[in-house]
């Protein structure tokens, strides 16, 4: 890990440590918790999209698998939440492994359409299996138990998701500085050149796709337990697009950009609620301006400009 990355990790840890003492009430703490959950999901997606160059428009499907595993298994089969979370992550990983080879052979918009189709299939299954999932109305999720007590208060959940976010950022920073991360950046630049230097391109693409799916599933389970209720919207197409937008706005191939993108786009709809029906228009205009003036995303563009000024 570079000195700059270590400094960024320390700053993030400091911000996470003081945030719960600065937010004025539970409403804002709830938004901060959702920011942290989204940040980990976006971080995993950025490893796939930003570093490996493999677009995914169905990532919310893996979030849905984790969320519904944590709802269905404890409710219908009496599982403890932690094994249910692990089972959801395993199911997402196995599904990603099974579809990775055929899907990741595709490129460009063909790959985008294939991943979109995968996400839509997962969403349709969740909606249609109403006897198990509650159908379009969703279903309640039991509380999460850790070390003999249930996580109930927002403050308890904050420290859990803050620790997960910090661990996720630390892991991603080490991953991208490892030989594996360098291989990912290589195949993003040119798959043919990567094959020439001996990189097993299909294996690396499959591995990062499975890893990204597993992390998304785990965070889907955490989100479901935190909210206490889950609906098929967690796995729909619009949620997938929202996640990709967070990657793009924060910065492709940027760990801290993933965090910033998730923070901004989780908070922005709440901030625009006062526009009474025009919030979607304003939201779209803000995104459009970001893409015009910050085409590489917020963090990479600002970092490049600061380097030029220095």
UniProtKB/TrEMBL annotation:
Tell me which positions the record assigns to the signal sequence. Answer: none
Q: Which UniProt keywords apply?
A: Cell membrane, Membrane, Transmembrane, Transmembrane helix
Give the subcellular location: Cell membrane
Which Pfam families does the UniProt record give? Answer: BPD_transp_2
UniProt-listed CDD domains: TM_PBP1_LivM_like
Could you tell me the superkingdom of the organism this chain comes from? Bacteria
Mark the transmembrane ranges: 27-48, 55-73, 79-98, 110-126, 157-176, 208-231, 243-268, 280-299
- The primary site where this protein sits is membrane
Q: Provide the membrane topology annotation.
A: Multi-pass membrane protein
Q: Does the record's keyword annotation contain Glycosyltransferase?
A: no
Identify a single GO molecular function assigned to this protein. branched-chain amino acid transmembrane transporter activity
Task: Please provide one cellular component term from the Gene Ontology annotations of this protein.
Answer: plasma membrane
PANTHER family from the xrefs? BRANCHED AMINO ACID TRANSPORT SYSTEM PERMEASE, HIGH-AFFINITY BRANCHED-CHAIN AMINO ACID TRANSPORT SYSTEM PERMEASE
- What is the name of the protein in this document? Branched-chain amino acid transport system permease protein LivM
State the species of origin.
Answer: Castellaniella defragrans (strain DSM 12143 / CCUG 39792 / 65Phen) (Alcaligenes defragrans)
